[in-house]
Amino acid sequence: MTTSPAPSAIGVPPAAVEAEGAPVPVGSLSGRRMNLLPRVASSAVLAILVAGMIYVGGIPLDLLVGAAAALGAWELASLLARCPVPAPRWLVVALAVWLAERAVLPGAGGNLEVILPAALAVGMVAGVLLQSPWEGSAAGLGGGLYLGVGLGSLLGLYHWSGAAPGVGLGLVAIVVGAVVATDTLAYFTGHALGRHPFFPSISPRKSVEGAVGGAVGAMLVAGIAGPLVISLNPFVAVGMGLLIAVAAEGGDLAESALKRQAGVKDSGRLIPGHGGLLDRVDGLLLAGPAVYCLLVLIAFR
User: What domain range is 234 assigned to?
Assistant: First the structure.
């Protein structure tokens, strides 16, 4: 759901790089420019699709989140399959979709007190019957939680209980906008000012300066839009922006660590010029739950 032109959420040092830590030959710069068109075009299409679905809301948005959960879970299971202990694909996909749609399911079907024990019991028993490694079942449960809770939190924000009409739409728009601002400002700040590596063992292209630039972008978006769109206290809105930036950058690093362990550059090839769906929503997967928890703690209405 993020739409920035950046390949990562925390920026890069000024030295040009093509792959993680690899110098870019001078002759390849023209090739990078040629690849810019499909990247920009796919970003525009994705932005229009997501913005339209968020604005329309209702069943179209619910279906979009469910489809994103299924596609993302498939990519995640493919990454886990390259790790030492692969996770059952069916468990990752089923749990992710169930959790992602939790906010719109009726009765007990949307209750975490039902979903989590049921997933634990079914996942572990099925693992025994199918003779899957215990660690694989645990990885499947963790993968489903990671993706399902992340996307489900966005749907939960949209359907925020007790909120006035339009507040849910504003909440989701602010979170998505702040994550996009984090991506974009981190990318350009990292290119212009990046000097100090930020978690180089996970992703050598990221810089501290890019991370700071991304945080400033998120705080500006949330600090301005929060009071105007959802009547949020300005100081709380700025704090929420900082929380979104930290969560989004953490989500990007978490996915980078998984891809590094799996030995791949992208999570998939779904989006031209960007990689897989996980490469685009990695920041949202932690930013959504972080904001949801914050609003619960401050009793937002």
Answer: 26-297
Whether 88 is covered by a domain: the verdict is yes
pLDDT by residue (tens digit) across 235-263? 999 999 999 999 999 999 999 899 888 88
Task: State the pTM of this model.
Answer: 0.82
pLDDT tens for 131-175 read 888 888 889 999 999 999 999 999 999 998 777 878 999 999 999
**Domain for residue 72, yes or no?**
yes
3-state secondary structure the chain: CCCCCCCCCCCCCCCCECCCCCECCHHHHHHHHHCHHHHHHHHHHHHHHHHHHHHHCHHHHHHHHHHHHHHHHHHHHHHHHCCCCCCCHHHHHHHHHHHHCHHHCCHHHHCHHHHHHHHHHHHHHHHHHCCCCHHHHHHHHHHHHHHHHHHHHHHHHHCCCCCCCCHHHHHHHHHHHHHHHHHHHHHHHHHHHCCCECCCCCCCCCEHHHHHHHHHHHHHHHHHHHHHHHCCCHHHHHHHHHHHHHHHHHHHHHHHHHHHHHCCCCCCCCECCCECHHHHHCCHHHHHHHHHHHHHHCCCC
| 10 within some domain | no
20 domain-assigned? no
Instruction: State the total domains in the chain.
Output: 1
